[in-house]
Write a structure and sequence with these properties.
Helix content: 40-55%
Order of helices and strands: EEEHHEHHEEEHH
Strand content: 5-15%
Number of helices: 6
Bound molecules: zinc ion
Oligomer: single chain
Organism: Gloeobacter morelensis MG652769
Family: In the C-terminal section; belongs to the transposase 35 family.
Domain Probable transposase IS891/IS1136/IS1341: 3-116
Protein name: Transposase
Radius of gyration: 20 Å
Domain Cas12f1-like TNB: 128-192
Length: 225
């Protein structure tokens, strides 16, 4: 690796503007300080339509028919439209986050578990990998920083006292019996992403704990669409 490829940390970066984000299917992302970015309705609608048109195509068995060729074009067009919408949504969301935060911790998608991988291939494929790449590139250009962390345990752990608070997929609320912290499970998870990033040099250099942001609560919800 040449010296030019070594990532340097902007010395003027404001670590008070740090946040952890949780990526999901219900909301596209939730930040540790309570901002919710939902998946846009138009995107969901287009996805549904694509599924319908793909089903129609599957029923047209005669490969030589003109009707089938027409349906193939229709599906391809819809695919392209969805890809365009998703890209636009990803860019908007990244800009929105970087207007507000300078250090963003997120789950490292390369080491995520099987369950999430299967979800990602579902109808509502949200394209987190593409989004994280876009976010990282934009952050670098803006002198900001994204940090990928191992997401294991981020859902179950209490972001305040580290207690293990078991949850099933349907448990949407984090209620800690030890320190009585109560908040949405995705917010708790987002906070844990940031906690996991605490070892990053950007925090060590300043000697400040990244959790100082917990006092700053913001209005919600926040729409990217
Ligand atoms: Zn707790």
């Amino acid at each position: 690796m040449s010296p030019l490829e070594v990532p340097t940390i902007n010395p003027n970066i404001d670590i008070e503007k740090s946040v952890g984000i949780d990526l999901g299917l219900k909301d596209f992302l939730v930040t540790g300080d309570g901002l919710y970015v939902p998946i846009p309705q138009y995107y969901r609608k287009a996805q549904k339509r694509l599924t319908k048109e793909q089903r129609k195509l599957a029923h047209k068995k005669n490969k030589a028919s003109k009707r089938r060729a027409k349906q193939v074009r229709k599906v391809a067009k819809l695919h392209a439209k969805i890809a365009r919408q998703r890209k636009e949504f990803h860019h908007k969301t990244a800009v929105l986050l970087l207007r507000k935060y300078e250090v963003i911790a997120h789950e490292n998608l390369n080491i995520k578990g099987l369950a999430r991988t299967r979800l990602a291939k579902s109808v509502h494929d949200a394209g987190w990998g593409t989004f994280i790449t876009i976010l990282a590139n934009k952050a670098e250009k803006a002198g900001c920083l994204t940090i990928g962390v191992n997401p294991s345990g981020t859902t179950q752990m209490c972001s305040d006292c580290d207690a293990h608070v078991p949850k099933t997929l349907s448990d949407r609320w984090h209620a800690c019996p030890d320190c009585s912290l109560e908040l949405h499970r995705d917010e708790n998870s987002g906070r844990n992403m940031l906690k996991k990033a605490e070892g990053h040099p950007v925090f060590k250099a300043r000697g400040v704990r990244s959790t100082s942001w917990t006092m700053k609560r913001e209005a919600r919800p926040l729409s990217a669409g």
